[in-house]
Amino acid sequence: MPRGVYGWRRESCGRAGLGRILRAPGGTTTAPVAPFRSDSPADSPRNEMTSPTISLLAFACVFGGALIGTWLRRTLPEHHLNTDSKEIVRLGTGLVGTMTALVLGLLVASAKNSYDTERSEVISLASKIVFLDRTLAHYGPDSAAARETLRKVTVVAISRIWPPEGTEHSQLAPLPAKDESLHAKLHELRPTDETQQLLKAEALRVASEISQMRWLMYEQSGSSISSPFLIVLVLWLMVMFVSFGMFAPPNATVLCTLLVCAMSVACAIFLVLELDHPFEGIIRISSDPMQSALDHLGQ
Fold it and tell me: How many CB atoms lie within 10 A of CB 29?
């Protein structure tokens, strides 16, 4: 899976939750389930570059370009800064600015689409968990053990995907095989009539869909932002700010304006990176759908 800008850190988005919770007795399965990967990079120590770090580096590069432009204004011969030179630089900067706007728009669209997709999957996962519990409730008292197992698995999923602040990274890694008890509990059900047979089949179907969705979340945990895209974007912004510094008078007003502009660009990059990392950071997907599902289990 391509790692993108979080090639340095994207595994920190984590991989946890319900994972491979569905397993039949004897080790057989009724749906594709995620294998446990004890050697996954997400479960080992990582050298990370966080969104704030990358944004600060982008700010340093962009504002540094403005300072370089100011220095060039003082050192270049006067004929390099005449009207004709300014016109050519202005045309080139306009071209670079247009391409920068297109790339930044692609990054924003990609990050927002990734965030919305993951959020929709969390909501869908929560609804399926509640529906599975309701199906088991209609089955009768014999499903009490399966319902309790479903509740325990949901609690584990929430604690791993949304750990307490400052404790550890979100984990989307599938659970180990020894913890896959829900599917076994479902197969232990012994229907006594046609209605219970239909309810058991429906429960197995929904449980399989939950497993498939967890696998999908696991596979989609990679970054949607490409490192070359981000690097090229910062380089183009740096070129633009060099031209700004070259042809602007070096006074406090100009420097403050360039500083604010560089900070604005860095903030935009920060927001893009945060959206692309939906289970951690400031802009992260809420656990409310899963918490709400948990509150309705067993009722």
Answer: 14
Structural domain for 270, as ranges:
4-27+59-296
Q: Which residue has the tokens 């071209």?
A: 95
Beta strand ranges found along the chain (DSSP E): none
The answer to the question of residue 48 being in a domain is no
CB 250 within 8 A of CB 73: yes
Please compute, for residue 236, the number of CA atoms within 13 A of its CA located in the half-sphere on the CB side.
20
Residue 156 three-state SS: helix
Q: How far from chain centre, in Å, is Cα 221?
A: 6
Instruction: Specify if 240 maps to a domain.
Output: yes
pLDDT of res. 185? 87
Q: Which residue has the tokens 């997907």?
A: 285
Mean pLDDT of the chain: 78
pLDDT confidence of 31, banded at 50, 70, 90?
Answer: very low
- Do the beta carbons of residue 226 and residue 2 sit within 8 Å? yes
CB 294 within 8 A of CB 154: yes
Tell me the chain's radius of gyration from C-alpha atoms: 26
Residue 43 lies in a domain: no
Q: What is the pTM of this model?
A: 0.71
Contact between residue 275 and residue 115 where contact means Cβ atoms under 8 Å apart: yes
User: Is 53 domain-assigned?
Assistant: no
Q: How far apart are CA 63 and CA 61, in angstroms?
A: 6
Q: How many domains does the chain have?
A: 1
What pLDDT score does 38 carry? 35
